[in-house]
TrEMBL record, chain B:
Assembly and binders: The glycine cleavage system is composed of four proteins: P, T, L and H.
GO cellular component: cytoplasm; glycine cleavage complex
Protein name listed in UniProt: Probable glycine cleavage system H protein
Record's function text: The glycine cleavage system catalyzes the degradation of glycine. The H protein shuttles the methylamine group of glycine from the P protein to the T protein.
Entry-linked InterPro entries: 2-oxoA_DH_lipoyl-BS, Biotin_lipoyl, GCV_H, GCV_H/Fam206, GCV_H_sub, Single_hybrid_motif
Gene encoding the protein: gcvH
């Protein structure tokens, strides 16, 4: 299948970006170097083109019921303009994808954002279940129509506020408002995937260029720094830290239990998770900190002496901490913080310590 | 994008350079400006030890950037005579100054470097 190009492809090319295939999209991986872009977001601000993310809109009288059936969190908690993080599960309680669910501030509908390449699959899933349950719901895959950029970093709110018709400084975390930015109609949501304060902005895809150009003096950032930023914050990457085929994990193993509401009405995966909560998990996600030189990478084995106890799913040299860090799944009895383990790197056994998987807790008021 | 390709040394197609030193039969080896740019921010280098035997065309170490792991190949056959300890602590030197302070190893070799690409031949290659 040919790669899809984002609407801003030419602008990125002109800016000297390097590209990578991500979820079927040819997206910028870096503009000025991963370290430079990473530091900009931690210290001031950066802007990301994340138009490869999927958007699915759910409206109709039974919209809330369907959303609650197919996501792990309880959408009844959402007032107009509120958002929540959730998992999309199969019957076994295994994560198919993760998403942010937004309740529109200005109409009775939900917008949820599956990962790149998942839009059609999720729209089909929602339609099938609506049909099966006889629910009055309209499902619309809006991935092609909507652009999405993320402005992230400690200065992001001020930067966006200076360009928006309505003040966004009082916008709460996980809240969304409709306004205009540099004259472009948009939805501004105080969400993101970097562990920093900031917003994500949804707009008509035809307005991609004016929206991007409105932030002309903000550091352009690619998916490379997005990956190192999210990893430092302990945010999981769909398709890598969990994947129904290659890394089948439940939210309880992935330390995402906080977005599973077992008390709400029946949802897909609920029975499996209730049983698992009763029995306990065999393996759990942990953060690892390497105690010697080396870079942990996806797939590397984690050992305890001669015993294989798990594997790394994401790892990098943390640009902020200047230390090698990783996310890994290990046997539950080796998942306590402070536990000594080893990571096998090219036949060498490198000592490592289990640590909080949120390596940087820059948004401490977050869940 | 233009890359520095100094003509005081020779090059391998796998993007390493080799340069004669003042010591008889000893050449310094590093990676090219093109190679460091392709890799991006370099964060780790795994190098051989003094006394290790290297064979032309064989991998002798690993350089890792944030995103990629890359093997490095020896442009000559010989014995490691010196290792650049600075880049163990400061691997970013390979990005900043690939042809001078970012050198990797010095190798004592009988083969010389004349079999390798000249600067203009390497420029054609990249």
């Amino acid at each position: 299948m040919p790669l899809r190009k984002p609407p801003l492809y030419q602008a990125h090319l002109d800016a000297g970006a390097e590209f990578t295939d991500f979820g079927g999209w040819e997206m910028p991986v870096k503009f000025d170097g991963i370290s430079t872009e990473h530091a900009a977001v931690r210290n001031s601000a950066g802007i990301f083109d994340v138009s490869h993310m999927s958007e699915v809109e759910i409206s109709g009288a039974d919209g809330a019921e369907l959303m609650n059936r197919l996501t792990s969190n309880d959408v009844r908690e959402l007032g107009g303009g509120d958002a929540q993080y959730a998992c999309i599960l199969n019957e076994d309680g295994v994560i198919i994808d993760d998403t942010v669910v937004y309740r529109y501030p200005d109409k009775e509908a939900y917008l949820f954002v599956p990962n790149a390449g998942h839009g059609t699959q999720m729209a089909d899933r929602w339609s099938e279940h609506a049909h099966r349950l006889g629910l009055q719901v309209s499902v619309e895959n809006r991935t092609e129509e909507l652009g999405l950029v993320a402005v992230q970093g400690p200065d992001a709110i001020e930067i966006v506020d200076n360009r928006s018709a309505d003040s966004i400084t009082s916008l709460g975390r996980f809240s969304m408002v409709r306004t205009t930015v540099d004259g472009v109609d948009c939805l501004v949501a105080r969400t993101g995937y970097t562990g920093e304060d900031g917003v994500e902005i949804f707009f008509d895809v035809d307005d991609s260029k004016p929206m991007w150009d409105a932030f002309g003096n903000v550091q352009r950032c690619g998916l490379g720094s997005r990956d190192t930023l999210r990893l430092e914050a302990g945010l999981l990457l769909s398709g890598q830290d969990f994947d129904p085929e290659t890394e089948p994990r439940t939210p309880l193993e992935a330390k995402l239990g906080f977005v599973v509401d077992l008390s709400k009405p029946s949802f897909i995966g609920q029975d499996a998770l209730e049983a698992l909560e009763e029995d306990g998990v065999d393996e759990a996600l942990v953060g690892l900190h390497l105690n010697e030189r080396g870079i942990p990478r996806n797939g590397y084995e984690v050992t305890f002496g001669d015993e294989s106890i798990g594997h790394v799913t994401s790892g990098t040299m943390s640009p902020t901490l200047s230390e090698p860090i990783a996310l890994a799944y290990v046997d539950a009895d080796k998942a306590e913080e402070g536990q000594s383990v080893e990571v096998t790197i090219r036949d060498n056994s490198i000592p490592a310590t289990v640590v909080d998987h949120r390596f940087l807790n820059t948004l401490s008021d977050d869940e | 994008m233009t890359f520095e390709i100094p003509d005081d040394r020779r090059y391998a197609e796998s993007h390493e350079w080799a340069k004669k030193t003042d010591a008889e039969g000893v050449v310094r080896i590093g990676i090219t400006d093109f190679a460091q740019d392709e890799l991006g921010d370099i964060v780790f280098a795994e190098l051989p030890e003094v006394g290790d035997e290297l064979s032309e065309g064989d991998e002798f170490g690993v350089i890792e950037s944030i995103k990629a792991v890359s093997d490095i190949y020896s442009p000559v056959t010989g014995t490691v005579e010196d290792v650049n300890g600075e880049i163990i602590d400061q691997p970013e030197l390979i990005n900043d100054d690939p042809h001078e302070s970012g050198w990797l190893v010095a190798v004592e070799t009988e083969s010389g470097i004349d079999h390798l690409l000249t600067a203009s031949e390497y420029e054609e290659h990249i």
